[in-house]
Amino acid sequence: MKMNLTKILVAATVCVAMVGGIVCISIKSNDKSSVDLNDSKSESKQSKNIEFAGRQFDDLGVSFTYPDKWKSKQESIDAYATEPEENINGQLIISFIPDETMEKAKKLNKDSEKIPETDKEKIKEISTKIMNLTNEFKELCRVVTIDTSKKDGKVQKELFSKYTNKDSIGKEGNLEFFLLYNDKPNTSNISEKSKKDYENVYSEISNFKNFVKVYKPVTEVEKLSENSKFTFKTKTLDNKDIDSTILKDSKLTMVNIWATYCGPCIEEMPELQELYEEVKKDDVNLIGLVSDTPDKDIEDLARQIVSKKGVKYTNLIPDKNVTNGLLTDVSGVPTTFFVDSEGNIIGDFIVGVLSKAEYKKEIDKRLQDLN
Q: What is the first-listed, main subcellular location in coarse terms (predicted)?
């Protein structure tokens, strides 16, 4: 079994139920609700200058750059967004990862390489262990977005009672943004070295609001709707050259964006294969796009996955154009969209898992649009 669990820890993945079904969201550098502006592999369209390295959460309307004392510990800074609850439009939770937690992740990574792919119980066990390591993260602060048009809820009252400082850091329409933090860090259960690093990073918290920018949130659908065409010149997982002229061979092509860390993506593959076989007669094609490539190890894992799931439809490795364009707007996988023979995107993007019957309805709807 080949799993880069250190990457999973630093880029932890959360699978949640959304309107479109189950969707996996990477909460670090591959996050399609968060963009790591210092990641050369997923360079943001908004900023390509390393000087402005930081994090961006468009769905919350929050971005931040790193204070001086954070810059040398960027790999130890974790940030992820929560779902709306009552009058809270969302929370951005920023934490520090102790060195010993990272070391545990590396050990689990080595252990995972000894597990055969067929041992699902062991895979599940070690995956649970790696995700449980997030419980060892030490919180730095939270940016909370309050919808002032709604009545104060129980969640807000309980949350605000836990923090000494509740600094208002901006407003946008009905939304007001607050930075929540305590005067002193909780340094229990971490090593002396991690304690010093954590305290050093924490010392910038009271000044952190000067590094945070707030703006009108941009939803997943709004971001994705900015993409009107799908073009590529790349290779398939089988290492064959391919480009977007392949789209001319079909009236409509369904593109399923997935990732090797996404369980729901992998579980839906057999039904997608059945769908692929069924819609051929309607001049419809289906291709996959492996969002967490290019990467040699991940490509090897992706090949194993599609082989075991019996996938025969083509899967693409994204080129730079796709990585720095379309994929910067994709916050969760699977995400599916449809294109005509010229690569024009037809209809809305679908975020999350659908059943085969539901995908078939979406295909029929778009074929009608083309007529």
A: other
CATH for 221-370 is 3.40.30.10
Q: Please choose, from the candidates 55, 63, 64, the residue with its C-alpha nearest in 3D space to the C-alpha of residue 26.
A: 55
> Among 264, 139, 253, 119, which Cα is nearest to 201's?
139
Matching residue, tokens 């060892």: 136
Q: What is the pTM of this model?
A: 0.65
Residue by residue, pLDDT tens for the chain (371 residues) are 333 444 444 444 444 444 444 445 443 333 333 333 333 233 333 333 334 467 888 888 999 999 999 998 988 998 888 889 999 999 999 999 999 998 988 888 778 777 776 777 887 787 788 878 889 999 999 999 999 999 999 999 999 999 999 999 999 999 999 999 999 999 999 999 999 999 999 999 999 999 999 999 987 767 777 788 999 999 999 999 999 999 999 999 999 999 988 888 999 999 999 999 999 999 999 999 999 999 998 999 999 999 999 999 999 999 999 998 898 888 778 999 999 999 999 998 998 899 999 999 999 999 998 98
d(CA 145, CA 9): 26
Contact 197, 96 (CB under 8 A): yes
Rounded Cα distance between 288 and 300, Å, is 15
Q: Which of 326, 334, 227 is nearest to 286 (CA)?
A: 334
The Cα-based distances of 319 to 242, 289, 310, 322 in angstroms read 11, 10, 25, 5
Q: Rounded CA gap, 77 and 205, in Å?
A: 13
Q: What are phi and psi of 143, to 5 degrees?
A: -105, 120
Task: Look at the block and give the residue holding tokens 């790591």.
Answer: 36
Distance CA 331, CA 348 (A): 15
What is the sign of the dihedral through the CA atoms of 194, 200, 205 and 209? Answer: negative
Rg of the Cα atoms in the chain: 22
Q: What are the residue boundaries of the structural domains of the chain, listed by start? A: 5-219, 221-370
**Structure tokens given for 319:** 């080129």
- Angstrom distance (rounded) from CA 186 to CA 307: 47
CB atoms within 10 A of CB 128: 9
Q: What is the DSSP letter of 54?
A: E
The rounded distance, in Å, linking the Cα atoms of 110 and 132 is 17
